[in-house]
Amino acid sequence: MGTHSWRCYFSRLTRLSVRWVRLCPQPRQGKRPGPFRQLWSYGKIIFNSLYFNVLTNWDTVLDSIFEPVYWLVDNLTRWFGVVFVCLVIALTGSVVLIVYLCVLPLIIHTYPTHWIFWHLCYGHWNLVNIVFHYYKAVTTSPGHSPQEKCDIPTVTICKKCIVPKPTRTHHCSICNACVLKMDHHCPWLNNCVGHFNHRYFFSFCLYMTMGCIYCSISAKDMFLDAYNAIESYYQTPPPHFTNEEKLFHKSLLYLWVLTSSVAVALGGLTIWHAVLITRGETSVERLINRKEKKRLKQIGKVFRNPYHHGRINNWKILFGVEKKSQWITRVLLPSSHPPRGDGLTWDCPRHRHEAMDTI
Fold this sequence. Notes:
Layout: H1 3-23, H2 35-49, H3 58-110, H4 113-139, E1 156-157, E2 164-165, E3 170-172, E4 177-179, E5 184-186, E6 191-193, H5 198-218, H6 220-231, H7 243-279, H8 283-298, H9 311-319, H10 326-332, H11 351-358
Antiparallel strand pairs: 1-2, 3-4, 5-6
């Protein structure tokens, strides 16, 4: 310790001693506390001086106790993110491989020409959108708060990054950075979903759900035939199937179960994010707005989301659509155009001025 540190320490110890003397009950006249009691009291002062702070409360103590747990969870999530990305690539690749080796040849040999054309066009269009948007969602930075001093308006200072936090910015403990318009940290992307990759994330969820539904419906009859064939394996005597035919049956069973399960799970997530986008809020803002709405309701006031531009306009802002033709070029087709705005400042709709009067 330096001279200044020792002075601060003894000054703090002196304040604690004076405070202890004032607060301790005075012994009766003629009775002094025993030496052990004096030693115990003095030891408590020494111990309290090691962590004394006027801002210390039970929340701070609990955060300090659980800090190792938070650190372990954050680091495990960061490492598991790499595993989840590899898992998405492996499962998607296995489905595409089965479709090309098993489903598509059967469609070409048994379906009419117009249905073959439909499956070839729709299937490849959906696949291209899935691959493109997943790649962009994983590799595109969500946007972070500027580390240098700038003239942008800020709401507060991040206690962990010690940098200004613009509006709609929140700190991600896994990425250890403040993310612009943070929605959530997605382990399946190993990346945060923020201002610059929110569109890629939602488009990937949407097209992946559509692709899984497409595979489930298209391969339903094939799945039923394969399931009945597998059930017949246990008959006496069992029917004769070659190893290639058994592999074909099991592949179709795997394809249908996987795509149906993902369609249900990911479909629910996609619907939830679609509701949030329609309301003009993120997952983090949803929790904050609910608390604020409840608080204002108790005092007889009405809360309005300052970033809600209307249902259609919220979708236009997300997809970066300014013309009608861009619904095709920027939504139905892969596009790497940047989102509207820089994520540091936000234009508020007209009703915000009315809401300010209401609040």
